[in-house]
Amino acid sequence: MKxxxxxxxxxxxxTLIPDIFFSEYLSEASGDFIKVYLYMLFLxxxxxxxxxxxxxxxxxxxxxxxQDAVKYWEEKCLITKKNTGYIVNSIQEIELxxxxxxxxxxxxxxxxxxxxxxxxxxxxxFINNKYFSGLMPTTWxxxxxxxxxxxxxxxxxxxxLFGYCFDMSALHKNYVQAVAEAWNKNNIKNFNDLDLYYEKxxxxxxxxxxxxxxxxxxxSLTQYEYAYIEKWVIDYGYSLDIIEIALKKTTSKANPNFxxxxxxxxxxxxxxxxxxxxxxxxxxxxxxxxxxxxQLEKTTGYNKYEQRTYDNLDxxxxxxKK
Length: 322
Known about the structure:
The protein is mainly alpha-helical. It has three domains: 2-94, Arc Repressor Mutant, subunit A (Orthogonal Bundle), CATH 1.10.10; 106-189, Arc Repressor Mutant, subunit A (Orthogonal Bundle); 194-317, no CATH class. 64% of the residues lie in helices and 3% in strands. The protein is built from 16 helices and three strands. The protein has helices at residues 19-24, 31-44, 52-59, 63-75, 91-105, 107-112, 114-131, 140-151, 155-167, 173-185, 191-214, 223-235, 240-248, 258-270, 276-300, 305-309; strands at 2-5, 79-81, 85-88. Strands 1-3-2 form a three-stranded mixed sheet. A hairpin with a 3-residue loop joins strand 2 and strand 3 (85-88). Helix 3 packs across helix 4 (63-75), helix 8 (140-151) packs parallel to helix 10 (173-185) and helix 11 crosses helix 12. The protein is elongated. It starts with a strand and ends in a 13-residue tail after the last helix.
């Protein structure tokens, strides 16, 4: 296998590694792959002929690891296979091509929507300067363009998205994508939508804190417990006043939990109850029903009547106090 370097300016005694390698490729590649690439980069300066087996011995790696590494860097376009061997490509040229290509592809659209594109360009420039100190990797640019199109965010929301991830110390693509997906599911398109979303989240936090206190929990809520609260507040539209009624009913339970609360609140929702008056009237009715059942047991002496009567959700109210 012969190695050549397409960048003639690198014929020096030092092996130069562009900064873009560290910002774009280092974190994604395994240690063995990086080891192979760096050694190939070193050898390419001298147009060396080397076999896979020789690389294996020199780097103390299995032949399979060398083959996998070569295939990996081929897919990343950092090396190119030729009849006589491989070319180690210039990373700067690769990244410059990535940056140039999307701009030329958007040139026709820019003519039609110049005002919109100028706003987006300013937003991206702000993100670059604010959250990347002017050094945002070029691969972020097409990703941001994709998120604009996919989620329909306006410029303020896109900036807020990066601001949120920056504050969470999680400014990497997978996390930004996950937050963007969550905002999209909540129908966030403009800053007003985002403001309403934050209000809902703040309301959820207050209710979650109250529930934890009422249940005597000294730990943080789990993801699943918080999902219950989101369902009660957002999906059912229940206020803290209604949830408080359910919390009071846990006093008759030895081990109250979120599953029990969810059964109560879901039952009320399924019955179409919208406010505390509806629920209190229903609970009064259930109390009378329980009273009548107990009276019937006492007079008839049939102590298994309750077990037969309360089969489904009605058994939630069998022993509740008002």
